[in-house]
Amino acid sequence: MQFAVTHPKSALAKRSELLTKYNLPDQYYICSNQFWRHKNHKTVLEAIAVLKQRGITVTIAFTGKEHDSRYPGYFEELQAKALELNVVENIKFLGFISREDQLALMKHSVAVIQPSLFEGWSTVVEDAKSLNVPIICSDLDVHKEQLEVYEAKRFFSTLTGAPDLAEAINNHPIPSEKIYDYGQNILEYGNSLVKIINNVLN
Asked: What is the rounded distance in angstroms from the CA atom of residue 60 to the CA atom of residue 122?
């Protein structure tokens, strides 16, 4: 079942307030994933380094829980990698923040980055669609399926990795001129759920 997301009714925080609260520049990208290995954060750090070598400066904010019981040292590995690549000044590790702030940061970003090496039906992708935000995704089949009719997207190759992601960031997707009707996704999700329940009952 292809689920859809619904968001809190509270108003999104003002952009200026968010930038001050999280010490972010006017233009930034956001990667909202738990800090798990398969979420592929290292490729994002490497892509920033590739861009920096070309004289292109970007800032990427990372949100999510910074501990994985399966690999307790993973977040520290990322910090060391950022230091090694000399991209510490280009990243913001924001930790586990409120859902409201997460959505607001996504809404006001240049683009959402979803670099995972494997996924189910991605909540991050659904969030970006519902907020009408450009998104840069790894070229997983599930991501392509989720974004089939969503215009403001760009994919990068998980095989090529950092160079391709750097290119995607440098040529980030242009927001669509038309508003994406995410209400249709919610309706389809509801209909699918009702259909499944009816099949089970009958």
From this structure: 20
